[in-house]
Design goal:
binds flavin mononucleotide; 5-stranded mixed sheet; alpha/beta; 30% strand; flavoprotein; single chain; 5-stranded antiparallel sheet; Beta-Lactamase; PAC
Length: 280
Amino acid sequence: MLHLVKETKGEVKRLKELSRETQAALLEAMIDGSKVGTIVTDPAQPDNPIIYTNKTFIEMTGYTRGEVVGRNCRFLQGPGTAKEDIEKMKKAIANEEKVIVTVQNYRKDDSPFWNRLVIEPVHIEGNLYFIGTQTDITLERSQQQAIMANEDEIEKLMLPILSIQENVATVALVGTMNFQRFETLKAKICEYAQEHHIEHAIIDITGLTWNEKSPLYWFTQIYEALRIMGSKLYVTGISPAAAQQFVTDSDRDSRVVTFSTIERALNFIAQNADGGNHIS
Ligand SMILES: Cc1cc2nc3c(=O)[nH]c(=O)nc-3n(C[C@H](O)[C@H](O)[C@H](O)COP(=O)(O)O)c2cc1C
């Protein structure tokens, strides 16, 4: 029997005794009021059918209680449901273990939704049941994807790679460089060179805030990555002092060609694509 209690200054006062019916009705109201879909299944029955569902599950899926009770929950699955997730749930249920998955499910009207699902075994009076809680995270997921697409767009804007003539691509770096940005630059420039059959890549660093701690040797890594693909790297917008430091800092075997302007680099490429460290 559940009791409503009130605690005042450490003293617990019993207010009222609740009947089993009131208790059940209150619990049901609580579960129905929850934003999370809840179902209970009975593995003692063939194919582990649903024996209880709350109102949210009904609203989330579009089915009536009569249509879902007595069925295995797999009716929510469809062509977009990942086989690995189904396998994961099957295994966890067989082992009576808790499992959390985010699966693509389908409502009665066939519209898809992303279901963040928690399945948990419970033992009540010696009997095993499974409780499943379902949260529709479609909106969060689409917002997250929009943010990611946006970030990708911002990244592209921060690293605008352009083909200025056949076989030649340039990227003008603006702002400050950090390791993350350098890694992105390396990946993007290699991807671009491969896609567009670029033989000469120019990185212009005129707009870059260059502090002494900036590891110039990172360019050597880009040079190496491009070299493997048969492309050459030129760094422009570099002051003679920075170029000197660059030569000293970097592996002397590397042959990154440096110029003061993009124009000079282009002239050099037009006349002679071969060359060592060079400042003009
Ligand atoms: C309590 C419980 C809730 C479940 N809820 C869902 C659900 O919301 N969506 C879903 O795709 N599968 C759900 N499942 C999983 C399926 O019912 C089934 O166990 C799964 O598809 C793996 O078994 P199968 O390979 O026999 O289909 C749930 C299972 C249990 C036990």
